[in-house]
Amino acid sequence: MKKAFVSVIFTLLILSACLSSTLSFSEIEFVPENVEELINPDVTLQLIDEEAKGAYIIFHSNGDIEADLDAQGNIVTLIFNEADPQTKQIKRNVYYLTTDSSHDTINIQVNGEKVALDEVTGM
């Protein structure tokens, strides 16, 4: 009986941790098939929103990217710096962003300049 109770409590803790969102930003290598179908290769910056879960940020660049995140108050700024942007080959970079309820605005900077999303898609 004690083991069953501990198992139930442990499961509830894990589920509650999974349901709470925290601020995170990371590059992903393997894009889920349902997201892959929504990626528009003709735009530079695209956001694919998973509603309460998070959002995929797709950045087609002309060089390697260094990405960072800066959060101040309710604003999350995604910072992309292109290394060697003279390259002719377009590279697709996919990132996953999760925010918590205190963040309601996303800004994006590329090479120090504020830019707008070309396309926003919902899932």
Derived from helix and strand composition plus strand pairing, the structural class reads alpha+beta
Summarize the helix and strand pattern as letters: HEHEEEEEEEE
Question: What's the end-to-end separation, in Å?
Answer: 42 Å
Apparent shape: globular
Rg measurement, Å: 18 Å
Percent in helix: 10-25%
Going across the biggest sheet, name each strand in turn.
1-6-3-2-9
Overall mean pLDDT: 83
Strand content: 35-45%
List the uncertain runs: 1-20
What count of domains describes the coordinates? 1
Number of helices: 2
Largest sheet: 5 strands, mixed
Count the beta strands.
9
Written account of the structure:
- The chain is α+β, with helices and mostly antiparallel strands and 123 residues long.
- It has one domain.
- Helices cover 18% and strands 45% of the residues.
- The chain is built from two helices and nine strands.
- The strands form two sheets. Strands 1-6-3-2-9 form a five-stranded mixed beta sheet, with no helix packed on it. Strands 4-5-7-8 form a four-stranded mixed beta sheet, with no helix packed on it.
- A hairpin with a 2-residue loop joins strand 4 (64-72) and strand 5.
- The longest helix is centred in the N-terminal third of the chain and has 18 residues, at 2-19.
- The termini are far apart.
